[in-house]
Amino acid sequence: MDGFQFEAFLVEIFQTIGYEVKETKNTADQGADLFVSRFGKNMVIQAKNYSGSVGNAAVQQAISAKAFYGCDEAMVVTNSYYTKSAKELAGTSGVWLIDREGLQSYLDDYNQKLIEVF
């Protein structure tokens, strides 16, 4: 799965579990890959499909995108894990980090919604 496929995968998950989702253009997105909204809150998402740990740069991109687009919240989602410094920066800046285990939780919700439909 490449980065664009990972973003499409996240669109499907977030839509199915009840978020309104808007994708960004593929270039010059100011650090935003997706916008999701639910319960009146707008969130920017930076998606990282990595084989190694995700560092500070992804968190910095999410912080920048949140400010640039005027979103209420920012999140970085990865299929991997985060470095200690990325966790520290996210903690002090209020950026939500969803790692491999957190993504599995979203997948569990997604699968439950699919079961409910059938």
What is the strand content? 15-25%
What integer is the average pLDDT? 91
* Distance between the first and last residues' Cα: 27 Å
Using only C-alpha atoms, the radius of gyration works out to: 14 Å
- Helix/strand structural class: alpha/beta
By DSSP (H or I, 4+ residues per run), the number of helices equals 4
Q: Poorly predicted ranges (pLDDT <50, ≥5 residues)? A: none
- Tell the overall outline: globular
CATH class: Alpha Beta
The tally of domains stands at: 1
Q: Could you name the CATH topology?
A: Trna Endonuclease, Chain: A, domain 1
Give the helix level as a range of percent: 40-55%
Written as H for each helix and E for each strand, in order along the chain, the element string is HEEEHEHEH
In quaternary terms, these chains amount to single chain
Q: Please give the largest β-sheet.
A: 5 strands, mixed
Topology of this protein?
Layout lengths: L2 H14 L3 E4 L10 E5 L2 E8 L7 H14 L3 E6 L5 H10 L2 E3 L1 H18 L1
Q: Descriptors for this entry?
A:
about 20% strand; Trna Endonuclease, Chain: A, domain 1; 4 helices; single chain; about 45% helix; about 120 residues; five-stranded mixed sheet; alpha/beta; 5 strands; globular
